[in-house]
Amino acid sequence: MGAREEILGRIRQAVRGAPEVEIPRGYRTAPPVDDLAGLFAERVRDYRAIVHVLPAAEVPAAITELVRGRRMVIPDGLPPEWSEGAEPAGGSLAELDAADGVVTGCAVAIAETGTIVLDTGPGQGTRAQTLVPDYHLCVVLAGQIVAGVPEAVARLDPSRPLTWISGPSATSDIELNRVEGVHGPRTLEVIVST
Amino acid sequence: MSATFLGMPGSFPNNAEKAVQNSQLRYNLRKATHTIRGRRASVVGELPDWQELRAAGKAIKDETLRHLDRYLLQLEEAVTDAGGHVHWARDAAEANRIVTDLVKATGETEVVKVKSMATQEIGLNEALAEHGIAAYETDLAELIVQLGDDFPSHILVPAIHRNRAEIREIFLDRMGDAPEGLTDEPAALTEAARLHLRERFLRSKVAISGANFMVAETGTLVVLESEGNGRMCLSLPETLISVVGIEKLVPSWRDLEVFLQLLPRSSTGERMNPYTSTWTGSAEGQEFHLVLLDNGRTGVLADEVGRQALRCIRCSACLNVCPVYERAGGHAYGSVYPGPIGAILTPQLRGMGSDLDASLPYASSLCGACFEACPVAIDIPEVLVHLRAEAPHGAAERAGMRLAGWVFGDRARLAGVQRLASRLRKLVPKRLPGPLSAWTDTRDLPDIPEEPFRDWWEREERHGRP
Amino acid sequence: MRVALFLTCVNDTLFPGTGKAVVSLLRRLGCEVDFPAAQTCCGQMHLNTGYPQEGVRLARHFTEVFAGYEAVVVPSGSCAAMIREQYPKLVKPGSKGAAAVGRVVPRVHELTEFLLDVLKVEDVGAYFPHRVTYHPTCHSLRGLHLGDRPVRLLGRVRGLELVQLPGAEECCGFGGTFAMKNAAVSAAMGADKARNVLGTGAEVLCAADNSCLMHIGGTLARQKTGVRVMHIAEILAATEAGG
């Protein structure tokens, strides 16, 4: 008998007669949050990321201010006004490593946890593009922010590779002291467009 | 479970006794566990529906286990449909053979690894080394452990037993490219690890990971991490091999809404860990292999009381609140799974044939802090007591317990013993001999009273109340 | 109200003063107290050490002895938790004695529960002019969920100054046979608990369980600290007249 059949057989033997299970889902699936953008910004800041909350009309100028003259990775499908003034970086791993940063949009953002989710869709780059550069500038539209984790999970497409980002990379492996900046981008800057 | 991980070889009480005497270890552990306890309590307290999430998490895992065969088949189909390859491994040797063959087929002799309990459990790094394949751990704490030829002592923070000065020394001695003038500032040590691993990440062709969750419905795997080493391994190499225990399943995509709240808050004590990666089959053209690992899990599943241990999502909250773990340290448990969860998981996976494994169910005062902290409500004290009944008992203890049972079986026998004790009360020495010295080495005995309560009561009843 | 006292084997043998205090306290509050002489042990030591068969025998014995009482009071959080939490699982539904367990178990109350939930008294008229700290004990806290009941009772004792024990909710390291089987860890936990007790400056350490107090008290005594340990019943029984 192959391993597959043997393992399945052992499982069937082991659970024979075990009771059926009801899953209670009494938790909050849509927590009430008055100011999604405000809470999101506050929670992202808690991770020691840089956050700006700006009216939509001011966003392009703010981005230009941040990327002007810098070698930035510009993902396919990024709105052109989100990278004006930047010098486009190449796509090889070495070029990504040498770039000054990457600018992206996102798929969903979660207010309660201060999380941004990328799904490699238009303007979000490949997984490598948002990982290797040391600086990540992410533009979050107000309409992309949901209150809690359940709403985010419902909005996301599991067939796409997803990256959930909550602050810059960090470790607490040394005496449980949190240190920001390990292998992922050491600086995360977020612009919330309202 | 393979016997490759031994940690400390003695029984738990002997190992713990040595650890208790190590004041540096005691200090490191106390500081770390108390820090993370506070963080966990604060972010758990933020959620008004924590108990509802906990109840859902428990039930989702129970449902998964109840129909594990069906969900595994569903997972296999979904992963295969998404361009991945699924392999099944009955035990450690089979899993190691599968992974070794997959790596050999790529022609590579080096692999990068994301922290994975399952691959530690099966001794994968050692198995690969036997075939000339070098496995590089990339999680900072795992790197500290690997460079120091050490054993992990915590599920989440494997180098929790090391302080910054010790880590600096390990880096200077073993890293090869540690910066000159390296200080023991955590930021400086972290920077050294970043530089050390950067080139390796960019050139590695094969990565090996575990997974925190697998979604049967969609074939999606999920890895939670902090440093970005996970993202490096999961997304840059051409080939990804994930070795995952069969119990890591959840039935549906929606179920992640529960676990992505329970796990980070219980584990690192954050609202969300810095990075969570999910992928389904072959992502962005990567070659993907999933190795489903049994290695004793189906045996645990067959135990009606013990099977709840398979709900475990490896958050380590039970370790962080455990007063025994805090003092004994992780190595005393002699397994990749230390702490309260290890005390119930290891004897079930490995059996209780060795002194060490037979002593693990007793490595608890049954204080219940672990059960209270567990995000999937594993009643660890219940399983400990259940395993104690199955553990081998020494002849002297068996005789003593039988005698005690006989005495308690009848009031006259109990009264006889009590009166005898009262008569001999002046003769009891301050330090008792033999095994009873375990009490009197550090504690005084209470004074034995002139008479037991029952004699006072009987006299009072006979002569009327005062 | 007629109540049966299940004193527990440890208290009966080693701490008769606690039994006398419970009797005096309950009588003062108007209860008629009976001590069924056939009582022995709840079986916790056997169950928790890995001898469930003896545990089952003692559980059946307990339920036979206490079958006829409308209320059973237990001055031990740990033994009360054993009876309430473990008996229904230990004596399997449908097996011999299961029906008796079902009848008796709901009538079993830990002392402070009985005072507050059944007698509904918070001020028991006690007087105890000392600085006291309270250790909640694991099975009272996490098994029975006694919550702040003991503290509420102590708060109404005249003359008593209650000081908060740092790390109160952490186990003292007794754990029944754990204290012998893992003596080193048990002693380390006990030493930390004793240090916290000393830090409060209290004259008396109080708990609702003499087993834990035997361990912490034994540690405090070995270190010649002068801190006394007292079961909560002994404090609640103390009056201005009786001292």
UniProtKB/TrEMBL annotation, chain A:
Domain LUD intervals: 96-192
InterPro entries: LUD_dom
Designated name of the protein: Lactate utilization protein C
Automatic annotation (TrEMBL), chain B:
Keywords, alphabetical: Iron, Iron-sulfur, Metal-binding
Residues annotated as domain Lactate utilization protein B C-terminal: 389-461
Metal-binding keyword on record: yes
Keyword Protease: no
Span of domain LUD: 74-285
Pfam families found in the cross-reference section: Fer4_8 (PF13183), LUD_dom (PF02589), LutB_C (PF11870)
Residue span, 4Fe-4S ferredoxin-type domain: 309-378
Protein name according to UniProt: Lactate utilization protein B
From TrEMBL, chain C:
Pfam families in the record: CCG
Domain Cysteine-rich: start-end pairs: 3-84, 132-216
InterPro entries: Cys_rich_dom
Signal peptide (from-to): none
Protein name: (Fe-S)-binding protein
Organism expressing this protein natively: Nonomuraea harbinensis
